[in-house]
Amino acid sequence: MSCDGRARTQVPSGAMYRWTRFVFSLVSFLLFACGSGPAPLDAAIADAGTDALVIPDAGGDPLAIACVAPVHGDMVLGSAGDPIHFVAALGDPAAITSVRIEGEAVTPDAFGLVSRDLVAREGIQSVEVAITLEDGTERTELCSFAVAPRYADASEPLDGTVLVQLGDEAIRGEGGTSPDATSLSDVVRTAASTSVAARGIAIGLPAGPQTPPSCEPECSSAYVTRITYTGSRIVGDAMLSSTTGDGGRIVINGVVPRIELDVAIDAMVAFEVPVSGTGTVSIVDVMVYAELEITEVGGELALVTVRSDLLGGGVTASLTGIADEMNRLEAEFATEQEVERGDALSIRAELAGGLADAVSTLLDEVVGGATPEGPSTRVLPAIASGASAPIEIETVVRASEVSPELLVLRVATRYDAPGRGGGGGAPTRTSRGAPIFALASALPVETETPAAIAVSGAVLSQALHAHWLAGGLEGVVAPDMVVAPDMVVAPDMVVAPDMVVAPDMIRFTSALPVIAQLGAAGALSIATSFEATFAGPAPYGTSTTVRVAAIADARLTGTGADPTIVVDRLSELRVSVPAGASESDRRTLRSYAAILAHHVATFSTGDAMPALPFVGLVVPEAITIDGASVATGFAAGTRLSVADADVSLVGSQFVIAGDLVATTP
């Protein structure tokens, strides 16, 4: 070839496709040598690299059309508006009179390549290549590929896709207006009440020697100069209860029959005689009162004792080690006086055996238990009759944000196919990841309800990608399993499924996952691209293969964590036309393709879609206090979650907002 583009050597048409990497490298070399320089690499080609382009061997078939760059089923890294230099290869350019890419006439080069500069759109983009042979035979092919600014590795959790938001009413209030509403304070109060009843209380004693305030200038004949508390005991069964106080505080009160304190004292008796001794101080009929509050400490929720007192009760002291009886009695009197001055000596009632810490641990477990540990497997139906597609789902709490009025948990999600990479049940596809559009992280919700959960639209992409990766869009489909409404609305046509001749058998395959995108105004679009090989009565024959690309407009209905996505219409439908098909055959193929596209969109976002991960907080059945397991009063598997309400599409995320309720399996 010379630099004016005219071929000096004829190449047999049957050899066109056999010139793979060498041919394309030669073309690149000639372009560079002729001084034009390499063309700017677009989103599709730059992503793979020019050397990676491989032209398939079509054996000189004049009807052959191959997608070269991007290849059919490619996942292109790019954004809407990016340039894409599309390249296709023809089987025998000499037998072709015209070629059109997206309706625009193009001319094959000497190597049977045709190209056109296009503009990328995010989601699934399909390019139609149409050829007309010398005998008038027409043939079209669809080259479909995904375009996304980011792809999420299916083996790694994607951060921030779910957000759990609890307001002040769900933390310290009543959790909402419904009869079943609850709050974190209610949970802790129940756990604290159960635990206190089981473990009683402990007495908080000041550490080290305590020096009472000076009694000068009016000291009594006996007074304590220093007292050290070395131990405490509760004698008898405490009668305690737990209630909810103002501002959601947890109030514990009751009566303790007797408290004994071990003491060591230094005292002054008869105004001038110093004495020392050890002994026991007894306090009877003690009123116990404590107030605890859930609050933010160091960026985390914690249970804090805001008030704790021992009230009332008669005090007696019994000391040993003092020789003089008078001195002993006066020392006992002085000790009793100082103990009665409890405020000065900081004697306080505390929750049993570090219960405050234990209940704070309960909070940690509730917050940290927002997700199950490790992945869980869900067996979803595949599009093939009687087949299944197992996927793994994992949710992980990545971070928590606490303010005085708000608790926010940020959760990562992972959707993958088990056994990926080989072995039994391995998926039939490999992939660069789930396509992610716009912001993957869920955003805080503006709501007046006590609790809310937001789920990013990226979760839909993860779930649909995992289902496809697990082989969920492969296999033989029985026509009677294809579900469609009474009417399928598509561009320039309304299809009544009962009026369309159906094939006897469909072999289904998809080079791309179904891609669902949430629009800024709550719109939901579902893009599909698949290949179907039909067998049956005319126009299907023994084997007729078409490629289909469609976009369905959908909406959300239903309640709870498993809403229903309803497909209203197909806003785009593209179908490749087999060579030699009559106009009537084309209409039948296009009509059945519309029915099948509607079914794929509905099936993928319905039966094959796991429930959205509206994460709940798991309440432990027991907590550990002083090394012993103590029941919290909640049944195993109890979860705190948002009450069933209508799921809405707000911006580019799913939102459920309502009361906080406790549910059991």
Automatic annotation (TrEMBL):
PROSITE patterns: PROKAR_LIPOPROTEIN (PS51257). This is Lipoprotein. It comes from Sandaracinus amylolyticus. The lineage of its organism: Bacteria, Pseudomonadati, Myxococcota, Polyangia, Polyangiales.
